[in-house]
């Protein structure tokens, strides 16, 4: 917005499932003649295929599937770029990168001119912004690492801890805890694996039937996992920051007083989002001294009070009319009642189509500007994108959350599925067909235009 270039700049923060889906949909939907540059800002050198982590945790040869380089995400001759950096602050027309990770100006040079730094090399301007920063889950599910090499090192240490332990306790029976318990027990059947969960059901997410939750418990128990429900345990030193502890302990359950001997404890509880980058966001009017009001904008009005996730409209724009050019997708938003990688992908695709509509509308407005004789509504309904006719470019697409869908891959041979229409499937074949075989690694390597190793 502040650049003199006539190139429309789309900045996407976060290169995981939602962010990459948005980028790919943008490249697919934008006409080749469009003067658009996409800038994907990502703090790591490679994409973490996190849903494959637990398989890589117990099968060393599977690790090669876990980190996917961004090298070929964009065509070499395109104006689009991947910028490695961490966004520290978001404003209404630009973002600022962390001072520790300033990219070279050549890394953010566009075909129509360089990004306007406004004398600050950390600054990246945008016309449209997509926040796709995802969520945080205790390691090893999602690791707080700055590079793929560091991530591989963390995973190797955890794998060695598992190998050297005999009595493993996992706290938290959501999807992550369930899959981890299943993978460990399958790979090391002689080890004792105990899963402690505070609720009366495993994977106790809204919208999923009791039968799915029961089948999940039965599958684990059939594998030999000791599932303990309606219980909690305080384990000294175990926290989100230190989620894997190798120590000889006697764990006492709070309600029953039952004791469990353990030499390895893993915390797998609680998804969190970090939306503090929005603390600097203000409506454009408050940046203009002539229009500024005495009331300062509170960015917390953009967040869900409990989860701190970003509130969005049905169009995935921020739930505030002052920011029609800023979107939030995936786990970091409240778009879906149960965030999953598939819902992040779906919201990313919807977001991209809406941005394309806004760009198209802006281009048509520029063409029509000054021509009062032309009917503003003429032939809007005949515009085409993605091979179909759009009724109106003035109405954005409403995001429809995907129906409750979950595939729990608890070992290479299967698990438990709940799929729309088909319902819950118990056993190996269904989960293997959908996910368990390679944990969708092939799909996501292809999505990044990379040959699977």
TrEMBL record:
Q: Name one GO molecular function term.
A: electron-transferring-flavoprotein dehydrogenase activity
Q: Its GO CC terms?
A: cytoplasm
Boundaries of each FAD/NAD(P)-binding domain copy? 9-353
Top-level taxon in the UniProt lineage: Eukaryota
Give UniProt keywords alphabetically. Answer: FAD, Flavoprotein, Oxidoreductase
Q: Which SUPFAM superfamilies match?
A: FAD/NAD(P)-binding domain (SSF51905)
Does Flavoprotein count among this protein's keywords?
yes
- Similarity field: Belongs to the FAD-dependent oxidoreductase family.
Q: Which protein, by its recorded name, is this?
A: Apoptosis-inducing factor 2
Which organism is this entry from?
Answer: Dissophora globulifera
Q: What lineage does the source organism belong to?
A: Eukaryota, Fungi, Fungi incertae sedis, Mucoromycota, Mortierellomycotina
């Amino acid at each position: 917005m502040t650049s003199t270039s006539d190139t429309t700049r789309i900045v996407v923060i976060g290169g995981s499932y939602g962010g990459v889906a948005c980028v790919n949909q943008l490249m697919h939907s934008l006409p080749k003649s469009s003067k658009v540059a996409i800038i994907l800002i990502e703090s790591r050198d490679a994409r973490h295929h996190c849903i494959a982590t637990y398989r890589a945790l117990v099968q060393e040869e599977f690790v090669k599937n876990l980190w996917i380089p961004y090298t070929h995400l964009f065509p070499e001759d395109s104006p689009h770029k991947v910028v490695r950096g961490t966004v520290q602050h978001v404003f209404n027309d630009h973002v600022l990168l962390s001072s520790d990770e300033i990219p070279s100006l050549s890394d953010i040079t566009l075909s129509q001119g360089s990004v306007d730094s406004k004398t600050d090399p950390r600054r990246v301007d945008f016309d449209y912004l997509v926040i796709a920063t995802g969520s945080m889950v205790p390691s090893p599910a999602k690791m707080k690492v700055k590079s793929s090499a560091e991530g591989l090192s963390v995973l190797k240490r955890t794998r060695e801890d598992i190998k050297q332990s005999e009595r493993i306790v996992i706290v938290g029976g959501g999807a992550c805890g369930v899959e981890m318990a299943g993978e460990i027990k399958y790979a090391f059947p002689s080890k004792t694996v105990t899963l402690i969960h505070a609720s009366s059901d495993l994977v106790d997410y809204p919208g999923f039937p009791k039968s799915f939750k029961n089948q999940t418990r039965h599958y684990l128990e059939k594998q030999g996992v000791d599932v303990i429900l309606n219980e909690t345990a305080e384990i000294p030193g175990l926290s989100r920051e230190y989620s894997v502890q190798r120590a000889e302990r006697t764990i006492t359950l709070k309600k029953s007083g039952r004791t469990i001997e353990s030499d390895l404890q893993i915390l797998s509880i609680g998804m969190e989002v970090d939306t503090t980058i929005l603390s600097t966001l203000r409506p454009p009017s408050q940046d203009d001294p002539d229009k500024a009001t005495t009331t300062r904008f509170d960015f917390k009005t953009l967040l869900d009070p409990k989860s701190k996730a970003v509130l969005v409209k049905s169009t995935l724009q921020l739930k505030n009319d002052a920011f029609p050019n800023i979107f939030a997708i995936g786990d970091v938003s409240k778009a879906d009642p149960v965030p999953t990688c598939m819902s992040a992908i779906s919201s990313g695709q919807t977001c991209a189509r809406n941005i394309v509509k806004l760009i198209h509308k802006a281009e048509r407005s520029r063409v029509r500007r000054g021509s009062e004789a032309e009917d503003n509504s003429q032939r809007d309904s005949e515009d085409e994108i993605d091979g179909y006719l759009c009724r109106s470019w003035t109405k954005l697409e409403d995001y429809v959350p995907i129906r409750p869908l979950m595939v729990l891959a608890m070992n290479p041979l299967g698990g438990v599925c709940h799929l729309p229409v088909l319902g819950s499937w118990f056993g190996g074949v269904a989960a293997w067909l959908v996910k368990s075989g390679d944990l969708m690694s092939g799909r996501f390597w292809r999505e990044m235009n990379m040959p699977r190793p």
